[in-house]
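Dear all,

This email documents one entry for the complex benchmark we are building for the journal club exercise. For each entry we list the sequence lines for every component of the assembly. Then comes the predicted three-dimensional structure of the complex as a token string, followed by one or two observations. Please use this as the template for your own entries, and keep the labels exactly as they appear.
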Amino acid sequence: MRNRDNKAFAYLYDNYASALYSIVLQIVNDGELANDILQEVFVNIWRRIEQYDMSKGRLFTWMMNIARNASIDTLRSKGYQNSRKNQSIQDNVDTIQVKDVIQPGVDTIGLRKVLEKLKEEQRVLIELAYFKGYTHEEIAELEKIPLGTVKTRIRNALIQLREYLK
Amino acid sequence: MNIQEYISSGIVESYVLGLAEETERVQFEQMCTQHAEVRAARDAFELSLEQQALAGAVAPPVQLRETILRQLAAEMVPEASRSTPVVQMRPIRRSVVPMAMRYVAAAAIVLLVGSAGLNIYYFNKYRDYSQRYDQLLATQTELAKKQQRHANPHEQLRANHSGFNESLYGQGYHGR
């Protein structure tokens, strides 16, 4: 795969595209957008495969973080936010309802499903940190809670997540 | 903090999910190389996360597979051309004259046009002055002639006078 063999990537796609697609969907909650991001994710995997270090973790974890970063970057990019603004002017509240119909299962897949089991205060922090990509400092400011509390709550939430994932 | 406490602090999950800060990340990677237990805990969490993701997998649209694999194949093309020897590109020149010479030529043309302009200007001036000089010369000659005409009567008078004295003297001398 490090030699960028096309067959190896076809194998990779067949085995992991769906899992990665669900990670993208959990973050962007938009099928059309998720298609574009998944394409970007595979291009990134292709380009950066040499940077993958087996000693630092599993290949899937590495790909999963590429998928998460690409999704968050897209959400945070100016172009996307502008298109969202335009959309909300045109379609107003209807868009949100239509989306809920198209993507009914986002809350029932992957980490989001486990997230449901957390306490509200923990869920909010994981939502902001993992799914929105905010730093601990940004969260402290946003939620108006001390930085130390943010860190402790996130750590505790993660420990619980691990238990639910077992 | 002992290893077990470190493992159960939430750092494993924080690192694997990409939520750890830079210093925590560096420390965790170091701990992994030093302690098999930390590594084992990391592997275990990664595996459960992967299983969770595979269980909750959502199939992307079927045609996306073709699009993505075709794009990856296209990514391969520049990769291949990079390994082949690169032929140095030469800029296309319309003439073989070097750039410096072109500047010299341009400067020469500017100087030529400028000097031609000055030539015309000074020639006109020369013609003007030459005409004025001729006029002055003519005036001067005329004046000189006039002056001569004025001067001549005196001269004649003087000549007459001296002639008259001479004749008187001669006459007187002769008369004596």
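Observations: Residues 5 and 11 of chain B are 10 Å apart (CA to CA). Chain B touches chain A through 43 residues (CB under 8 Å).
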